[in-house]
Amino acid sequence: MVTRHLTKLSRPLLPPGHVLGHPSLPPSRLAHFSSSDLWTNYEQAKGWLRCKKLPPDIETFGVFCNDKIDMEEVEIYGFDYDYTLASYKKGVEYLIHDIAKEHLVKKYGYPEEVGSVVYDPNFAVRGLHYDVEKGLFLKVDSSHQIQLGTVYRGRERLEDQEVLALYKRKQLPVTFLEPIPKNMKMVQLVDIFSKPEMSLMAAVMDYFMRHNLEYQPESLYYDVSTCIGAAHATFHSETRSNPNLYLHRDPELIPCLERLVQASKKVFLITNSPFETVDAGMSFMVGKEWREYFDVIIVQAGKPHFFTNNAKPFREVDIERKIFLWDKVAKLEKGKIYAGGTIDHFQDLTGWRGGKVMYFGDHPYADLADVTLLHGWHTAAVIRELEMEINKMNTDEFKWGVNWQQVLMALIDDHQNVEGEEARAVIKEWKKEVVTIQSSLRSMFNPQFGSTFRSHNNPTYFSRKLFRFSDLYTSRVTNLLRYSLTHSFYPRRGALPHEFKSWFV
After folding, report:
1. Of 161, 262, 386, 424, which is most buried, counting CB atoms within 10 Å of its CB?
2. pLDDT digit string (tens) for 340-384?
3. Which 8-state DSSP code applies to residue 311?
4. 217-241 vs 194-210: helix axis angle to the nearest 10?
5. Buried b vs exposed e over 410-425: b needs ≥16 C-beta within 10 Å?
């Protein structure tokens, strides 16, 4: 049998789905493969893969497409400010964390030792869920499955058996993940400010557990969340006073805005930040005349309520006296600053509607969801984590690991019905190797939680929302300069489970 089997595998350059699946052999013949046959398949599959070129690098500063977009049809470009036009340095996360922990001690009576915890920027990733009742951080995929091995109480990882005992299942109910406000069991920590929030919660939990102190997970979450919110006022003050300490100056931002103006595109800004913060930051990044690039500027918009028409009416801002004027806003004029408002009023006053508009923001929910689902705007998400993740994905180690994992899983799929005890032991060993590979790939991004965008073979819950609410996504607004304003973006055609296999996707 071994000789006959080796004859059939004498063409190692053929893809594993052809060679290793033996489409000419019935399942009953495959079931009788010996452990020696299986290891021969294994080595030849690895040899076949080594003969293949690794995939080309991904463009770190690329713009990625979820839906077909003809940029020639876009006449109006809108932008959020924080983490969209404004790219903050890591120091902002430390600042937010440290202000919040000070509030916890001085205003909420937490132990003095909490005031000395240090921010860990490498603990969490964006998009995790926090179980408010159980006090757990967990990563969930697009099918609502908990990714085992990524459930933490503080910085202590829970064993898989404990997770399953707590939840009774791997797949979470939709009511957990998209909760009713009065019955909130979980929250998703989506924006960049969530990282210092998660780090602080984890550190406080660790302190309580280390000192055998009982605590209420719900109260801890609400206290930390409130303190993070309160820290924003100080954050705005600090970034206004020292923009050079907290803001990156992107040399391509001015050319990016100039190109839009020269192409006769309309440009607007809708942000929740106050004018003083935006003015200090944009003056630092673009220059004192930054307002000349924008046809409409709206601050303190109160998103997401702005986009759901639940906000206050527009008010013109007197920037000299720092007050809102009382008279009715009948039109939105270039050179003036407005606050509040609603999207319906905005569209009525400007006439900017539907697919002519593209809005850029960093928060898939607060910035993008409603404008695309309810109002038909095109949307683009600015996700800074992309650059780090793409750089990791471009390493030979990662490319090999992903592709070998796929080939190895195909081997398991083809031969999992073997009958001999020794042969079944080989399959078990292969399955353990798949788990080892997946763990290694995950740790390349973050030792605790892995990639922001992927949970082993599935997208994360964060990715699911990102892909649903954004037509395009990229790591920074200025990446658009790599494409013409008439460029057509086409989404990649992904293979469905019932379609042909492709090894290098």
Report:
1. 386
2. 999 999 999 999 999 999 999 999 888 999 999 999 999 999 999
3. S
4. 130
5. bbbebbeebeeeebbe
